[in-house]
Amino acid sequence: MKRIQYHSYGGPEVMRLEEFALGTPGKDEVAVAVRRAALNPIDWKVRNGAMKIVTGRSFPRGMGLDLAGTVTAVGADVTRFKIGDAVFGMARFKEAGSLAEAVIAKEAALAKKPETVSFEQAACLGTAGVTAWNGLIDKARLRPGQSVFINGCSGAVGEAGVQIARMFGAEVSGSCGAEGIERARSLGLQTVYDYRVTAASTISEVFDVVFDAAGTLSTSTGIGLLRKGGTFTTVEPTPVRFLRAVFDRRMKPIVGKPRADLLDRLAKAAHDRTLVLPIAETVPLAQAIPLISAIEAGRKLRGKVVVTIG
């Protein structure tokens, strides 16, 4: 089988489309024939070595986390899936490898794909949906009627956050680039700021929850946008922020972690069409490396990139 992998940490030049041997799923793992995979910035952040304290130095390593496909084998303790089930979710973080013809994933990091949801759409739900849910629901404990400000509301995590917040009955505002404002308004945002025109630090309104989906807000700005008792969640979980979170209950760094009940909720939302992420481009596996390289070099796409495999 083939996958995109690398033999050392580094830039786009280390990626190769090569043959590999798929292992056997462990007792709580599932082997999946990948139909579609979706790209996320975390994919090349890991490849660059930014997370090597977690991912280690065992090579070759596969690229990619998000996937949708069909179960081909299950571990001894797996009860939620059987061979032939259509599933979506995330590969194991340490090993990755969804940009492949097949991959191993934890049972808890997968959900059954609704028949009404395409493999393309399902592949997009993992990282974006899990991160937004972790931030807004798990960390901020969002409640109906609360106000939310989402920084980066036109990115994949931001759009997932907007739709999840509205599912829970929140009033949502946000900031993004001018090119994303129309899309943001179509999702039901009350107020949308162009971050190039209005700095978040100058916004006078305050919110129950500030969700930094872009990872670009300073801690002082995020907390400055909160009303009393509010929560600032961010996708940029630096050591300093973790330390502050020990002493300041307003600070909630996010480390996205999939789990079965969360993914089942995302599946239902996708079935109900209350969670839909736009797809900007679809490419076959053989053409994914040049596109990843172009995105890293600054190419802007308004939506997710999906890689077609099976």
Automatic annotation (TrEMBL):
The lineage of its organism: Bacteria, Pseudomonadati, Pseudomonadota, Alphaproteobacteria, Hyphomicrobiales. This is NADPH:quinone reductase. One of its GO terms (molecular function) is quinone reductase (NADPH) activity. Residues 10-307 form the Enoyl reductase (ER) domain. The keyword Zinc does not apply. It comes from Methylobacterium phyllosphaerae. InterPro entries: ADH-like_N (IPR013154), Chloroplast_QOR (IPR052733), ER (IPR020843), GroES-like_sf (IPR011032), NAD(P)-bd_dom_sf (IPR036291). Its EC number is 1.6.5.5. It comes from the Bacteria. Keywords: Oxidoreductase.
